[in-house]
Amino acid sequence: MTRPSSVHIREVGPRDGFQNEPERIDTDDKVRLIETLGRAGFTRIEVASFVRPDVIPQLADGVEVLRRIDLPDDVRRMVLIPNSKGLDNALALRETFHEAAIFVSASETHNKKNVNRTVDETMADNDVMAKRIRGEGLGCAAVIATSFGCPYEGKVEMDRVLGLAERFAEAGATEVGFGDTTGMANPGYAGEFFAAALDRLPGVEVTAHFHNTRGQGLANAYAALEAGCSSFESSFGELGGCPVPKGSTGNIATEDLVSMFHEMGVDTGLDLPAVIEAAREAQDVLGRKLTSHSLVAGPIDWHLAGA
């Protein structure tokens, strides 16, 4: 497989990142940070979710955020939908977003702890939602959590994960994202996995979503790229993680991912200094140092005097 010369990166910090913060971020700050990201060159941003506010209180102001943000016309807004009730609520605001993401965990235990349903129950609802989403003229993306391992069950068979992906595609999803929810992937398996996923899902956008929980996030992204993957998700400032189980922190930092790709000659369409500036603003809002490397070191400058 030839390495892609360009990739698309969806910024997920405003949803996946903010939901894992211990405190609520002020709505004004959320709006400002999302608009800052919108000026960095992103064409896709995951903005909010329609999960019940008592479950994810950090995102309880999602409707207000959707209504208030001012983004360039070419930036597609995505929302996360947990179930048909959430879709009902989202469609009442149909004009505020362009894409909807539905999801399932590949492992039974994680799915039960995350959404209190079996995988079969979740997928039956997803089949219905995918058709409704497409019927509304919206983009439909599917996300499979614990694609590379489950913190409760251990290994998750590749065939099981790709079987779920094929079912999503049959239901109408045009994109399937594979989530390393608690940082259990490794570069060797990531390369093997994405080569198989791209082979089994022709015509479907295959997206890599890695966490840096154990420090292997960028290595896994590199392996996915080498296997032919050209679609990625990441979070500015390395914000995010998974609330189930606790301690599963750290999406790949968008600025670190962009820096790596740019140094490799892979085009992202993004303004790296602007992404770093957005992460710096998030750091100021949160009042603590964030963990991305590019936020500390800045972009590489090959034109320094004496270099």
Short description, anyone?
With 307 residues, the protein is of the alpha/beta class.
Notes on the protein architecture:
The protein is of the alpha/beta class and 307 residues long. The chain has twelve helices and ten strands. The strands form two sheets. Strands 1-8-7-6-5-4-3-2 form an eight-stranded parallel beta sheet. A two-stranded antiparallel sheet has the order 9-10. α3 (62-68) links the parallel β2 and β3. α8 (187-200) packs parallel to α9 and α10 (254-263) packs antiparallel against α11. The longest helix is centred in the middle third of the chain and has 17 residues, at 119-135. The chain is globular. The protein starts with 7 loop residues before the first strand and ends in a 10-residue tail after the last helix.
Which terms would index this structure?
eight-stranded parallel sheet, 12 helices, 10 strands
